[in-house]
Write a structure and sequence with these properties.
This protein is α+β, with helices and mostly antiparallel strands and 243 residues long. The chain contains nine helices and six strands; from the N terminus they run βββαβββαααααααα. The protein folds into two domains: 78 residues, Glutaredoxin, CATH 3.40.30.10; 143 residues, Glutathione S-transferase Yfyf (Class Pi), Chain A, domain 2.
Length: 243
């Protein structure tokens, strides 16, 4: 357990039930065997109009410290556990991983926008923006920036919630969003069998995610939209955006 002075470090999260930022923190801490207390601010109810920020509070370092930036939270957990690093030791490799983390975090933001769209034009633009960012990730993997496998790294921690969501959408809504990105599909497959990730990104959480999207009337999970696209593009062809 990390210590600051004579006080053990305590981490406390406040977030909505399926917050991807919170999922990253839970994964990062679990990989070090460190518990995180949590207050759920919302279950993701579609009628809620209040957006509460995700907050990670560090207790035990004198005055409490609050962090609201998602990537800074992952870096904080990294720094709290120097005996269990999840970044590469080499500074260049570490910078390359951090670049991937930033691209992945932006892709998650773009997916979140697409998962709220209720109009076809909005979804079209959102999917185009998402695909562009996924293409950037695929290109960086092709360039050798990361080869999934072996020990879970911070870049895996950050990308796991995104790839988990894309996998759910592909399997349950027939979106085929990962279809054109073979390296991302392989990364998703590898992450799906990692024990700690499976303990947090559970089947129950997947069911809740899909239920929330339906409750929001998100067009991305509308069966008629998927069928209409398949009739034009052909079976197994993923949804495409023009954004």
């Amino acid at each position: 357990m990390a210590d600051h002075g004579s006080q053990p470090t305590r981490l406390h999260l406040e977030s909505w039930a399926l917050c991807p930022i919170a999922q990253r923190v839970l994964i990062a801490a679990a990989l070090r065997g460190h518990p995180v207390t949590r207050r759920i601010t919302s279950g993701g109810e579609p009628q809620s109009t209040t957006i509460e920020p995700t907050i990670l509070t560090l207790h035990g370092a004198g005055a409490d410290v609050q962090v609201t930036d998602g990537l800074a939270m992952v870096e904080l957990v990294e720094d709290l556990f120097p005996d269990h690093p999840l970044h590469p030791r080499d500074p260049v490799a570490r910078a390359v991983h951090r670049n991937l983390m930033a691209i992945g975090a932006e892709a998650q933001t773009r997916l979140s926008r697409a998962a709220r769209d209720r109009q076809a034009q909005d979804l079209d633009l959102s999917l185009g923006n998402l695909e562009a960012q996924l293409g950037r990730l695929e290109a960086r993997l092709a360039a050798g920036d990361h080869a999934p496998g072996g020990r879970v790294a911070n870049v895996d921690v950050v990308l796991a919630p995104l790839l988990w969501r894309l996998r759910i959408l592909d399997e349950q809504a027939g979106t085929h969003l990962l279809q054109r990105f073979a390296r991302l599909r392989g990364w998703s497959d590898w992450l799906a069998v990692q024990p700690v990730l499976r303990d947090i990104l559970t089947a129950e959480a997947a069911d809740l995610y899909f239920a929330v999207l339906h409750a929001r009337r998100a067009l991305i999970v509308d069966a008629e939209v998927s069928l209409a696209w398949q009739s034009v593009a052909g079976p197994g062809i993923g949804l495409r955006g023009a954004g």
